[in-house]
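Cross-check.
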Amino acid sequence: MTVSDGGPHVNDDAEATESSTLSLDDGDIYACQDGPRDAPALLLIHGSASSTRSWDSLVPMLTRAHRVIRIDLLGHGRSAKPADRSYALPDQARRVGTVLDRLGVEHAIVVGHSSGGAAATALAEQRPDLVTALALINTGPSLDAFIAPETAAIGPSQWPLTDEQLRRFASTGFSRAGYQIPEELLDEVRAMTFHTLTATMQATRDYLEQRALPDRLAALGKPLLVIFGEDDRRWRSSSAADYRTVPGATIELLPGLGHSPILEDPPRTAASLLAFTAIHTARAD
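Predicted model, tokenized:
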């Protein structure tokens, strides 16, 4: 069953945005599409404590060449936030695959930001027929690359966070102090429950503990692009070199950018993605 959220929205660069909520067995999942529906599919997966909105500035630069699909993972954005469902990455990936099947997508290049790159990897492991290539943006290859936060861990008694706590929590997602974090993204964190926030973050740690991403990706044999803002304050940007163990991987470091190049410099990020997708869309054809 698919439930529309109110119909299409205008996009000057391509076909109108089409958004819908799809009812899955373990929760409703929100999805939206932009660009020509007959163009090659490009799936964008957000990171923890984020949503489809994190891609808003990037999407208009991608729709000239792609049918761009975005999904709010369970626990995030406009998707359901149940307390009694699994947030493990293989389960998140299974839901993403089901959504793509419902949308009639047979092949897609998959892009993941931060922990969304781990979800993209899990999808490729489950559905190698569906995923033709992957692009990971500031996705830590293993827990060894994680930069522990200076602030104390958030406890359930502190939830929901005050505005000041929320901005401090989100600040490491950008390259410099004082970056004006979009209010709509802060609203997405506010909308999460303490359970969904902690369960989704723990799911990424569990997945990386089980096996590092470069090892998983090397076994898949899929074309890989790794983009890393050099000034990332959550994952050591030097760890991008770990992905060189994946045969044929392309690695790009972006000077002056932090953990969220998709927000800090959308044109530069889009240029890297489009150069990669142009090659691998042509090969898939």
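Confidence is low (pLDDT under 50) at residues 1-14. Strands lie at 2-4, 18-24, 27-34, 41-45, 67-71, 108-113, 131-137, 224-229, 250-254. Passed to J.P. for a second look.
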